[in-house]
Design brief:
Blueprint lengths: L1 E10 L6 H19 L3 E9 L3 H9 L4 H18 L6 E4 L3 H16 L3 E11 L4 E3 L18 E10 L5 H10 L4 E2 L1 H12 L5 E2 L1 E2 L16 E2 L1 H6 L1 H8 L7 H4 L4 E5 L3 H15 L6 E5 L2 E3 L2 E2 L10 H8 L1 H11 L6 E2 L2 H31 L12 H4 L2 H10 L3 H22 L1 H4 L6 H22 L4 H10 L36
Parallel strand pairs: 1-2, 1-11, 2-3, 7-12, 11-12, 13-15
Antiparallel strand pairs: 4-5, 4-6, 6-8, 9-10, 13-14
Helix pairs in contact: 2-3, 4-8, 4-10, 5-6, 6-10, 11-12, 12-13, 13-16, 13-18, 15-16, 16-18, 18-19
This protein binds ligand ME8.
Ligand ME8 binds next to β1, α1, α7 and β11.
Length: about 500
């Protein structure tokens, strides 16, 4: 079975920030989960380098768009490994093969009769690279997202006949009810479609040169959004030298995007694929905004919390954990350094880190590190069905719920330590068997949660499973009771204390 997951390709008009890290981490969790289930996974991320957002930023900095793109693409490329993201390829829309792919697909769209010449009259935000309808425009003719004054455009353009896809899109939403997840985003997208679709500009005229040339009209470049969306498809043809991966990995399983770009992914994208005669993706998973002081973080608003600082001080696993734990995936959520530290302290250092140290220390103290072999574990009911529940959540893109399901068991293990009080059992000759069961259960519980947490906390999970001598983190090992730990040493603190407040 194949599984293809993508992030948006990020604009190179600025540096990577926490919002970008968020989507990449979410995609990585799904990629890692499906890989360990033995599936054939392709995980794609990259950069969006054409259009006004980049051309304008380059002009401001006195650079050519290509030079700015080269500089910032490097920073986005470097972000992925820092997040421990396991992407299989990094696409840049300035790649020659991508440009060729865009031209081929959009030529097919034209040949199929879905492109015509027209005139665009109306508002345009060069930061969004998006056309704004009258009812979206804020007072003073401003962009509702960037609050900058919109430009008034009147231009001859090639248009994509989006209006021809109204019924086909409605049918798609009916036939594939989970095409857009979660359901409130699906409803938003469907309402947009049902509200009536207008044809959209497919190209930009002479005012903008920075883009992929329209093959049938070299004076024009494609509107950046169509160039960008096509990355998900074009990448497959050249991601692996000598092999075309398109058959193997298309259609995509999950496109993960922020709600700011819902319209493009949930409406334009399936329509353009249909127009080209290509299969549509299985799911678009839409998440909300990370908010700092209630304002969406974005490069254009200059309001960013730096993921690199957190990674440097705490490592990347705490960042991955915090973002997927503190903000319900799908909705908006406030993020702050204080909330990060609190989660770090109470959940990673205490709930998980202390559990691992205490449990391993007790096995060392009471059993010389030998994990007792027991006939049956306690807590089997508490763990019953957990792995399936986690998988079911992840299949619906419920990343926070899956993590919560695991964390309920982490808490259960902590309560079990208190209930059993192994330090008391140890003092009583008659209770040695119960102590054996308690220690074996705790080790098995710890092993199980660490296997399940592997997609979220890859480095921590590998370290601890290695320390337990049970490095298998495959899906088969995720079932409670599989066992395999025979000997343990005391585990060093997984999440050491940090005194200073991160910047
Ligand atoms: O839109 N909270 O690129 P972009 C959560 N190039 N996620 C956030 C975020 C925030 N505050 N800020 C950014 C583009 N993101 C286009 C995409 S795809 C074919 C083309 C994340 O650099 C989120 O995933 O503006 C959002 O959709 C994306 O970054 C926008 O990145």
């Amino acid at each position: 079975m194949s599984f293809t997951v993508t992030t948006p390709i990020y604009y190179v008009n600025g540096a990577p920030h926490l919002g970008h890290a968020y989507t990449t981490i979410a995609a990585d969790v799904l990629a890692r989960h499906h890989r360990r289930c033995g599936e054939d996974v392709f995980f794609l991320t990259g950069t969006d380098e054409h259009g006004e957002p980049v051309a304008l930023a380059a002009e401001k900095q006195g650079m050519t768009p290509q030079a700015l793109a080269d500089q910032n693409a490097e920073r986005f490329k470097a972000l992925a490994p820092q997040l421990d993201a396991s992407n299989d390829f990094f696409i840049r829309t300035t790649d020659e093969q991508h440009k060729l792919g865009v031209q081929q697909v959009l030529q097919t769209v034209k040949d199929n009769g879905f492109v015509e010449l027209g005139r665009y009259e109306g508002w345009y935000c060069p930061r969004c690279a998006d056309f704004k309808s009258e009812n979206e425009v804020e007072d003073g003719d401003r962009c509702p997202i960037h609050h900058i004054v919109l430009t008034r455009e009147s231009e001859e353009n090639w248009f994509f006949k989006l209006s021809a896809f109204q019924e086909r899109l409605e049918a798609l939403y009916a036939e594939q009810p989970d095409f857009v997840l979660p359901v409130q985003r699906r409803n938003e997208a469907l309402a947009f479609i049902q509200g009536g679709l207008q044809d959209v500009s497919l190209s930009r005229g002479a005012k903008l040169q920075w883009g992929v040339q329209v093959p049938w009209d070299p004076e024009h470049v494609f509107y950046v959004w169509f160039d960008a969306l096509l990355n998900y498809y074009t990448a497959l043809a050249y991601a692996k030298p000598g092999e075309d991966l398109t058959e193997r990995f298309w259609p995509a399983t999950f496109h993960i995007v922020g709600k700011d770009i819902l319209k493009f992914h949930c409406v334009f994208w399936p329509a353009i694929l249909m127009a080209a005669g290509l299969p549509v993706p299985q799911h678009v998973l839409v998440h909300g905004y990370l908010l700092m002081n209630d304002e969406k973080m974005s490069k254009s608003l200059g309001n960013v919390l730096d993921p690199f600082t957190i990674i440097e001080r705490f490592g990347v696993d705490p960042l991955r954990f915090y973002l997927l734990r503190d903000v319900q995936f799908g909705g908006d959520g406030e993020v702050s350094a204080e909330a990060f530290e609190q989660r770090y302290e109470s959940e990673l250092a205490n709930d998980l880190g202390n559990l691992a140290s205490r449990v391993s220390a007790m096995v060392v103290k009471y059993r010389d590190g030998a994990v007792p072999a027991v006939g049956a574990f306690d807590l089997t009911e508490d763990f019953d069905g957990l792995a399936d529940a986690v998988a079911a959540h992840l299949d619906r893109g419920e990343l926070t719920q899956a993590l919560e399901a695991i964390w309920v068991r982490v808490r259960r293990l902590n309560r079990y330590v208190e209930e059993q009080a192994p330090w008391k059992l140890a003092k009583d000759e008659a209770l040695q068997e119960q102590l054996d069961v308690a220690l074996a259960t705790l080790i098995e519980g710890l092993r199980t949660v660490m296997v399940l947490l592997a997609p979220y906390l890859p480095a921590t999970s590998a370290t601890l499973l290695e320390a337990l001598g049970a490095p298998d983190d495959s899906w088969a090992a995720a079932a409670f009771g599989t066992g395999g730990v025979t000997q343990v040493a005391k585990v060093a603190p997984l999440f050491p204390k940090h005194d200073a407040t991160p910047a």
